[in-house]
Write a structure and sequence with these properties.
Blueprint (H helix, E strand, L loop, with lengths): L1 E2 L14 H4 E2 L2 E2 L11 E9 H5 L12 H10 L9 E5 L2 H6 L13 E2 L3 H7 L4 E4 L2 E2 L12 H7 L2 E3 L5 H10 L3 E6 L9 E2 L4 E3 L1
Parallel strand pairs: 4-5, 5-7, 6-8, 7-9
Antiparallel strand pairs: 1-9, 1-11, 2-3, 4-10, 10-12
Helix pairs in contact: 3-5
């Protein structure tokens, strides 16, 4: 799912307010209509389990921004402005070992808020992940990454199935690819199912 639908007390991207933007008939700003012709850009996969030599990210060890920098260096990829960065955390393997669930009301493994400077500094256009924001966290808010990237104008590919991509990247020994992403045209929609395709 591609989505762009989170805001805070200060409003939305470019200073818009939810009251101005979101109506009963749909949104009039930052909608998936802007992507009606699809997105074609360079994609990068950052494979956290491979870097850690562990099957998946856990509650006690969320993904940090410095670690993403280390992974990019280790994988010999240079992140450039406009790239789509996918962070693979091993969600499905985690779920298989945890009664089919990868998050509960008591906790959810994933990305720490320290990943935000990584997103901003690298000027990425799209963030994709299989796990979401790590929770609980020291900031006492549930969506530390979700709740900020909107202000950067970054699109989110939420809950992506990244294990097959991780396997292919390992086989090809490369972690960058051409990404095509074609959300449904949903008038006024703030999110849409999507079918990201990586071409090597």
């Amino acid at each position: 799912m591609v989505c762009f639908h989170v805001w805070d007390k200060n409003g939305m991207w470019e200073g818009k307010t939810p009251d101005d933007v979101i109506k009963f008939s749909g949104a009039n700003f930052g909608t998936v209509e802007e992507w009606k012709d699809g997105i074609l850009t360079r994609g990068i996969l950052l494979d956290v389990p491979k870097h850690r030599n562990k099957p998946y990210v856990t509650l006690s060890e969320p993904v940090h921004g410095w670690e993403l920098e280390d992974i990019a260096t280790e994988q010999n990829v240079e992140i450039k402005s406009g790239d789509a960065v996918f962070v693979y955390s091993g969600r499905d393997k985690y779920a298989a070992d945890n009664n089919g669930r990868w998050g509960t009301p008591d906790g959810r493994p994933g990305l720490h808020a320290s990943c935000l400077p990584f997103v901003k500094t690298n000027d990425i256009a799209i963030l994709g992940w299989d796990m979401m924001d790590a929770s609980p966290n020291e900031y006492e808010i549930p969506w530390t990454v979700h709740g900020v990237i909107f202000a950067y104008g970054v699109a989110l590919v939420d809950n992506a199935y990244l294990e097959p991509l991780s396997n292919v990247c390992a086989e090809e020994k490369r972690y960058d690819f051409m990404l095509s992403l074609n959300p449904l045209y949903v008038q006024g929609g703030t999110g849409s199912p999507a079918n990201p395709i990586a071409t090597f």
